[in-house]
Write a structure and sequence with these properties.
The protein is an alpha+beta fold and 231 residues long. The chain has one domain (34-206). The protein has helices at residues 3-14, 20-28, 61-75, 119-124, 205-219, 221-228; strands at residues 37-42, 48-55, 80-88, 97-106, 130-136, 149-150, 154-161, 164-171. An eight-stranded mixed β-sheet has the order 3-4-2-1-5-8-7-6, with helices on one face. A hairpin with a 2-residue loop joins strand 7 and strand 8 (164-171). Helix 1 (3-14) runs antiparallel to helix 5 and helix 5 packs across helix 6. The two termini are 28 Å apart.
Length: 231
């Protein structure tokens, strides 16, 4: 599957409960400031998992490279096919440019561990007060990983929708002096949240549309054309 088609597929997963025309209208009507950084990890059958990072605005590419270096240091991953671009958001009336980073790493998602990597992303992007981290792992993932967590340094909440696991991360202390996030949590620690019929917290819906905006940026012109028809 080509990259634009992959990201369009993920976009469809996010908005699967919304008719196509309505989804486009709601995307174009997106309001409220998005997180400072949106991170998408898409597991693949080959084990060469896709990482997409989108910043709320345009940043120096050297800064994005430093963030990648911090992620490498925190994980030991070899990041390949790194691409850093600046492109205007098709959802913003003023066409504000946003910096996006795309890369590939081996076995970011390891289903046999039943958890998802969170702490290295928190460490690498700790200078950004608000982070949204979403994993697309597909159906059948036996998840027993981190749900909600809070201490003096960070607050993390999880929303799960089908095969998408979205962590909303708020950095309280960028020094992260004593951060030690659990990789796994007991089943009794299930997310305690009132969910609507789509399985998503009502107040988190706008974060999913913000993530969809990031996917639109990463997918390039094909997605821009799709969304612009609703403008």
């Amino acid at each position: 599957m080509t990259r634009p088609r992959l990201l369009l597929f993920l976009l469809a997963l996010l908005l699967g409960d919304v008719p196509a025309a309505g989804a486009q209208s709601r995307l174009v009507a997106l309001s409220g400031a998005p997180p400072d950084v949106l991170i998408l990890v898409a597991a693949t059958s080959s084990g060469q998992d896709q990482i997409d990072i989108t910043y709320a605005g345009m940043i120096p590419h050297a800064q994005a490279q430093r963030d990648l270096a911090a992620l490498r240091a925190a994980t030991g991953w070899t990041l390949r096919r790194v691409r850093i671009t600046d492109a205007p958001s098709s959802l913003a009336r003023n066409r504000t440019k946003m910096t996006g980073v795309q890369c590939v790493a081996a076995r970011v998602v390891r289903p046999q561990t039943h958890g998802l990597t969170v702490q290295p992303f928190v460490q690498a992007f700790r200078l950004y007060p608000s982070i949204l981290l979403t994993y697309f792992v597909g159906q059948g993932f036996q998840f027993q990983g981190l749900h909600d967590y809070a201490d003096n340094d960070v607050r993390i909440t999880l929303d799960q929708h089908g095969g998408a696991y979205t962590y909303q991360i708020l950095i309280r202390n960028p020094r992260l002096e004593r951060l030690n996030l659990p990789y796994l949590q007991p089943a009794a620690s299930d997310v305690r949240a009132v969910r609507n019929e789509s399985g998503v917290r009502p107040d988190s819906k706008r974060w999913l549309f913000a993530l969809a905006a990031a996917l639109a940026l990463a997918a390039g012109c094909a997605v821009y054309a799709l969304l612009s028809r609703a403008a």
